[in-house]
Here is the input.
Amino acid sequence: MIVADYQAMTPGSRELAQRALRVLPDGVSTDTRLFEPYGIYVRHAVGSRKWDVDGNEYLDFFGGHGALMLGHCHPSVTRAIQDAAGRGIHFAANNPTEVEWAELIQKYIPTAERVRFTGSGTEATLLAIRIARAFTGCSKLVRVRTHYHGWHDFAVSGYNDFFDGRPAPGILPEIVSNTLLVTPNDTEELCQVIARHRGEIAAIILEPLGSHFGIVPSSDAYLKEALTVAKQREIPVILDEVITGFRVGAGGMQRLLGIQPDLTCMGKVAAGGMPGGIVAGSARMMALLGRASGSNASQKVLHQGTFTANPVTASAAVATIQEVVSQSIWVRANELAQLARRRLNEVFERMNVGWRAYGRFSAFHILPEWPHDLSRTDNVERIPWERFATRSTAVLHKLRMALNLQGVDIGSRGTGFLSGVHRLEDVEQLVAAFERALARMREEGLSG
Ligand code: PMP
Here is the structure.
């Protein structure tokens, strides 16, 4: 049995999980790590590898939830962090590196006329939504079902569930009544919603590739149309480039598509793989963060944060952005991901498993139930979003566990990220691990 072998291989993780259960709800520090019976505990990582407390080695395709475009412990990033930490981690004052970081964002992100840092990607979207509300004087937020913008109150209902717009536990009814959920890739519905709520909408927020870097894929055409419609109606667009920023290219998706969001949120790679986030945007909207904005100083949008632009994160971010951009790190990561997707689909076909690997840029996603009514070559954007939203997490968790037994780790949602440190051999190892993992899963009747 896969579970029994996993438990036999990870006694140290099991022991830590038992301790964790007595102190952390469900034994985890984030829902992202919920895993049955428990997830591995990792002690250290270098390059594309990580090692758990039992000494097992994993080829890592989770890459810090997509935050590590340069792999683990990249020498220049590690040096930047160590140097910064050695100089002091909090000055309760401005630090020179935050200016350098902001200048890099302004230089590479086309619409970043002004920049503010936050403590995380979640805080970035929270701040962007607040700026948009202050700017427009409107309350309603248009969000696309399944798109993720962090875990704050304005982003929760309709992301993972509660797709009908009911409030998720702990979320105020007033918040969901001010949230307009729309269907991925449905421009017509978006236009209707905008028309119905004329003069009420503070912003449209969306992820450029669809939920979680395209787990539920959005087409570029939809994104462009959404921006066009919003511009016509003078509704601000918040583009959530928390994953795509400095992963798909130096200027994010906005440069690749030539689109001009009013506000952009970033984090992860753009924050050097450290806790941090960024809001960037038009000088006109970002001016609301400044005292001298507008006619009335009391209109200023509040923004604080003990750890905002801390010197350690800022140093990691500057080192990461410089390395990623100077080496065009995304080029090889994209190529390797494309190869991985192709090779994985060959495995699924060879093994006659009704699965599909898909995705764009430097990621692969796994859909464990390819709809029977669609041919394998069909475009994923033709698949109804519900098929992705309701895909079997139990199967994907089992897959991750079976891959762990083969010395490979991916995300629990079936996503893998390629980075600048992955090599051709790593893709080969991934494919071989999938083949063995699937064979074992099939023995247990979980696929095919
Ligand atoms: N937006 C997107 C598109 C994300 O992928 C994430 C994190 N996965 C966030 C926002 C939230 O970022 P953080 O986890 O840093 O709060």
